[in-house]
Each structure stands twice: as structure tokens, then as C-alpha cells.
Amino acid sequence: MSSEVRPEVVATADHIDTVVGVLRELDLGETAPAAVYQAGESDAAR
User: What is the pTM of this model?
Assistant: First the structure.
């Protein structure tokens, strides 16, 4: 087995790193935890 990393693996790791970076930049300070939400309900129903 070669010790070189396949280009597909490098590309996937780079993509994941980019997505995680974007998620870290999101301001979720005003967002309630997922347990607060009920499926199928709108904000007006609460």
C-alpha cells in the first residue's frame, strides 16, 4: 500500500474543511436548541 494520499481523499478533506469553516462562522446565538422545535409547527403555532 502506498503512503501517498489519493487526490480524491485530499479533495474530500478540503471540501469538509471548507464546509466546517462556514458552519463555524454562522451566528447561532439567537437560535433555540433543536429540542424546542416540534415537527410540522410554525412559529405562530407556539
Answer: 0.54
Q: CA–CA separation, 6 vs 42, rounded Å?
A: 46
How far is CA 5 from each of CA 1, 11, 15, 24, rounded to the nearest angstrom?
11, 10, 15, 27
- Give DSSP secondary structure letters for 1-46: --SSPPHHHHHHHHHHHHHHHHHHH---TTPPPGGG--TT--GGG-
The answer to whether the Cα torsion of 12, 17, 20, 26 is positive or negative is negative
Give Cα separations from 34 to 1, 5, 38, 39 (angstroms): 44, 38, 9, 10
When comparing pLDDT for 30 and 8, which is higher?
8
